[in-house]
Write a structure and sequence with these properties.
Blueprint: H1 2-18, E1 23-32, E2 35-36, E3 41-46, E4 56-59, E5 65-67, E6 69-70, E7 78-79, E8 81-88, E9 119-122, E10 125-128, E11 131-133
Parallel strand pairs: 1-10, 1-11
Antiparallel strand pairs: 1-2, 1-5, 1-7, 3-4, 3-8, 4-6, 8-9
């Protein structure tokens, strides 16, 4: 009986560790016309397969730097594979603490958010995903 319990524990540990191979950590920097983009929401959504997996998100700091967290698991990183990248940065109107106040117009052009053309392939291990966005002039 003792050996069966040890075998089951080893099996659960192996299964739990196997999931890390399907995930990579992701961090990087977002700039808009060469300047750091603070307070931007960065979303990575897996694109491959019928059920591509859990998306990831991050928030840029004042330097435009971010790191991703899996949405459902609250673990660092993103699923391995090709992702659609969506970046939004709408300045808040009114009170920063009142979520009923509508946000201002997104400063990020639509080709990087609602109609995003951005893609990034996450690989096992650490990934650096920097994006230099350009406004149309």
């Amino acid at each position: 009986m003792r050996y069966l319990v040890l075998l089951l524990c080893a099996l659960f540990l192996a299964l739990g560790c196997g999931d890390n191979r399907r995930r990579g950590t992701v961090s990087g920097k977002i700039t808009l016309d060469g300047q750091p983009l603070p307070n931007a929401r960065v979303n990575f959504q897996p694109m491959e397969g019928r059920n591509p997996g859990i998306g990831s998100y991050g928030q840029t700091d004042v330097k435009g730097e971010y790191s991703l967290t899996l949405i459902d698991e609250k673990a660092q990183g993103a699923m391995v594979g090709l992702h659609r990248v969506i970046i939004k940065a709408a300045p808040a109107k009114g009170s920063q603490t009142d979520d009923k106040v509508p946000a201002g117009k997104d400063v990020v052009p639509p080709e990087y958010n609602t109609n995003s053309i951005l893609q990034f392939e996450v690989k096992p291990g650490h990934n650096e995903a920097n994006f230099d966005l350009k406004k149309k002039k």
